[in-house]
What we know:
With 561 residues, this protein is of the alpha/beta class. The protein is 40% helix and 14% strand. The chain has helices at 16-20, 45-49, 61-69, 82-85, 93-100, 110-124, 138-147, 161-173, 187-193, 205-215, 233-236, 257-268, 300-312, 346-355, 375-383, 393-409, 429-435, 448-451, 455-463, 502-540, 545-560, and strands at 4-6, 26-29, 32-35, 55-57, 74-78, 105-108, 132-134, 178-183, 201-204, 250-255, 275-280, 414-418, 424-427, 469-474, 479-488, 493-500. The strands form five sheets. A five-stranded antiparallel β-sheet has the order 13-12-16-15-14, sandwiched between helices. Helix 20 (502-540) runs antiparallel to helix 21. The chain is elongated. The model has no long low-confidence stretch (mean pLDDT 87).
Amino acid sequence: MNLIRLDKNLCDHCLKCLRGCPVKAIKFHNNERTILDNQCIKCGLCHSLCPQQALSVADQFSVIQAAIQGGRKTVVSLAPSYVSSFEAQNLNSIVSALKKLGFSAVEETSVGAQLVFDQYRKMLSSCQTPNIITTCCPSVTYLIESHYPELIGSMLEVVSPMVAHGKDIKRRYGQDAFVVFIGPCLSKITEAGESGGAVDAVMTFTQLLSWLEKSGVSLDEETPRPFDYYGTMTGKMFPLGCRIENESYRYLHVDGIENCKSLLDDMQRGAVSGFSIEMNICTGSCVNGPEIPREIKESHYLKRKRMRERLAVLPPEYSPESITSIELNLSRTFRRREISISQPTEEELQAILRKMRKYSPKDQLNCGACGYNTCIEKAVAVYNGFSEFSDCLAYLREIAEEEHSRLIANSPNGICVLDKDDIVLLTNPKFDQLFNREGGISAVGVPIDFLIESTAFSDILKQKKCGEAAIVKLATPDRHFLVNFICDEQKKQTTVFFMDISLYEKNKADLERLKKDTLEKTNEVINKQMRVVQEIAGLLGETTAETRMSLFQLQQLIQED
Length: 561
């Protein structure tokens, strides 16, 4: 099943999920963002890391609620890590809360953990492999089945405590009982679907708290009630380590995805021998699962410490010494999970690397910004259609720098960058053409007033009104410029743009001269006409007021224009 769903409308392509994914099971290609379900080990790291909350977990709330409302016997199997995952003063209040939500019975998964522990011990004496692997973590199982299939033979073929408990619940309550596992783990949702009906649904601790809040149920306000079935102390301690060893195998506990992968690599090449290895994907094991309530802010060290302290003070009746051994079929088989990753030929690989501008090994930065550990891994992902070669940060930076340089170099405007003391840090070719035409020395490192000797420019430079433009006339070169400043307060730098507007100013001056000449000629015509009119008017005895007014209006219109 698709345990984790990705909403591309919320995803901002930051690649943080891919960087955190231990098996790179996320596809970013052609604007597609997809979880590669056959490669995914269901660890939930991507969900925990996503800053945009674009990843959501499969929710089985409606299935659980339907079973409760349908009158079925609904039994909770509560993971042992509940002891360190809730802040309630009396942890047995969680039993009351769950029954208020409608569950028929509440038991500890540690019941199943004891059954699994007993089965491990029986099998240990007959093991012949160089090492044995035990785990209650489905993500470890999926990791080995899909990425280390050569080590499947080292795994003890026993179901997990969750499945063992589910089988035991259905033995006692009947096969029609509806078993709901509640814990801090996402991978249990997938495991339950593969359990052959031993577990019907899974709810995480986070989902449970959300349900309690919506229902107005508070753990602190509930009267504590006993569990319907308690597990042993051995079962309760499973999240802290399940110690299985004998004279042939020394016990080794490994947690954290990178630690697990590193040890599996060592086992695969035969560098490790004689160990009974218990593995957990989460750092700190189940007490630090991805669905531990966010209110629990402690490190996994403090969570483990708190769990030990709480278990140490439990009354005897809360931890029976043993669980009655029942003949349940707790065996399982592991299978190779095929993943579809093709390997390019050397020529194909090099062609992709060249597209990424990796022309030689020194160009392969292996920075991991793209989500892959090495440039070779990235190229293989591109070959398989899981990624785009343009997602390489070094590639994008190089393209951006080239475009920036090309833009600056070909700008029709003079550009220079000044430090806080107005010393030139950078110039473009147009600036050098305008203000450093001698070319004998570099403009870099020279005070700007050495290159531009102008009182007008010095005045506007002192003011540095960033974002505002000013027109200045420079004698050398004999041109007008529109000068603009962009200030970087953090770097204490100023970028100055010089736009040559000499042609505009020349056209404006020519227009002013034309207007002046036109006005002078108009005045001359008016005066001449006035004299003629006055002479005629004197002869005819007519007034010249109307003619004078019309001519003066013409003169005024020309002056205003």
